[in-house]
Design brief:
One of its GO terms (molecular function) is NADP binding. The chain is of the alpha/beta class. It is 30% helix and 19% strand. The protein contains ten helices and 19 strands. α1 runs parallel beside α9 (316-334), α4 (128-147) runs parallel beside α5 (174-185) and α4 (128-147) packs antiparallel against α9 (316-334). The protein is globular, with a radius of gyration of 22 Å. The structure holds nicotinamide-adenine-dinucleotide. The site of nicotinamide-adenine-dinucleotide has 31 residues, from α4 and α5.
């Protein structure tokens, strides 16, 4: 059985799906590992750091792959290079991706989108959303600290006392909690906000204050649900006043399979202090702020809004290490006695499946 990966082709992508550590573990399971030459170089893993595996050019890698692993989906033409019936594992971004799903089907591939895994205890070791969101949350706060015109910590100096920055994190999921932890390490005064009531305790356990706006919207599977128009109005009204004292906002709010909720309106941003900064980690899904332009910097009334994209790619070594371990733990579900035999009776296998031998299995 050949497990294979290419150098990622998405713009700015530096991660790799198979690291030297994971390649070794796959070899230990009796699997052959075949990578495109230079696949891990941008992540900090030159070919020489892999032991006991093979390298080839992209076309040869695809032609021999029984199981193809990726970080992000390659362009749709790439699927043509895989053999019919091959398995694909990675973040396949299945929502709204009709053309990609059609290409996977046409090639009769059996594909698994790791972002569809249920968020159960057993799935934690394969949870790429969590591992990559942690990287994104960490990086978003560092970007905020770097771009802000103020220090984060309090400083007592001969030139006077500097007050700590007031930082608000909106959305206290995996990324938001890591952003809070990072701001805390930098010494800011932090508040966290979320619509899921259970996040209060998580925010407080990181030494931050929970901002209670009186709107509660727990959904299913540990996720939030979309707010109704009235709830959104109540949230915005309560938030608008509070924003006047905030120096930095990092937003991370998301609802699976839906566009990012718009939480910060242009009018709310207008009410903020000049010099205030918003880093919108939800930019990829359209953004939590009305002014966000994905991948760009917007300035209005002295307030700067940043919409950075693909943040995990900016810390590619650790992001790849975590991602590859997630992939390995999932691949373990597919392999028995050296053969690829996905057990569709296992909900982790069934729920992450997008196409099975070309048949559509993804309903979203
Ligand atoms: P996510 O990326 O889907 O959303 C980020 C956060 O935004 C969530 O906390 C959500 O509640 C919040 N949000 C959504 N709409 C909002 C709004 N209008 N206003 C304010 N906040 C809003 O979520 P995530 O970080 O991937 O994780 C969500 C949940 O899944 C958490 O409860 C987490 O603990 C849980 N989880 C469980 C497992 C597991 O058990 N295997 C693994 C990871 C995460």
């Amino acid at each position: 059985i050949t497990v294979a990966a290419l150098r990622e082709t998405a713009a700015g992508e530096r991660r790799v799906a198979i690291t030297p550590e994971v390649a070794k573990k796959l070899r230990g399971k009796g699997l052959r590992v075949l990578l495109e030459r230079g696949a891990g170089a941008a992540a900090g893993f030159p070919d020489a750091s892999y032991t006991d595996i093979e390298f080839a050019d992209a076309a040869a890698v695809l032609a021999q792959a029984d199981l193809f692993a990726c970080v992000l989906p390659p362009d749709d033409a790439t699927w043509q290079g895989l053999r019919e019936g091959a398995l694909v594992v990675g973040q396949l971004r299945p929502y709204g991706a009709a053309a990609r799903i059609a290409a996977l089907s046409a090639r009769k591939l059996t594909s698994f989108a790791l972002e569809l895994l249920p968020r159960t205890t057993r799935a934690q070791a394969m949870d790429v959303l969590s591992s990559q969101a942690a990287v994104a949350g960490y990086r978003a706060m560092l970007i905020a600290a770097e771009a802000a015109p103020k220090f984060f910590p309090m400083l007592t100096t001969a030139a006077g006392t500097i007050r700590p920055s007031r930082v608000l994190v909106i959305g206290a999921g995996v990324a938001g909690l890591q952003a809070i932890a990072t701001a805390r390490r930098l010494g800011a005064q932090i508040e966290g906000y979320d619509v899921r009531p259970e996040t209060r305790e998580q925010v407080e356990s990181l030494g931050a204050k929970f901002l209670d706006l009186g709107v509660s919207a727990a959904g299913s599977g540990g996720y939030a649900r979309e707010l109704s128009a009235e709830e959104r109005a109540a949230q915005q009204q309560a938030l608008a006043d509070h924003l006047k004292v905030v120096d930095v906002i990092v937003t991370t709010a998301a609802v699976p399979g839906r566009p990012a909720p718009k939480i910060l309106t242009a009018a709310m941003v207008q009410g903020m202090k000049p010099g205030a900064l918003i880093v919108d980690l939800a930019a990829e899904g359209g953004g939590n702020c009305e002014l966000t332009r994905p991948g760009e910097r917007v300035e209005q009334g002295g307030v700067v809004v940043l919409g950075p994209l693909n943040l995990p790619a900016g810390a590619p070594l650790h992001a790849s290490e975590m991602y590859a371990r997630n992939v390995y733990n999932f691949v373990e579900l597919l392999v028995k006695d050296g053969a690829l035999v996905p057990d569709f009776g296992d909900e982790l296998v069934a729920k992450s499946c997008v196409t099975q031998a070309g048949e559509l299995r993804f309903a979203g």
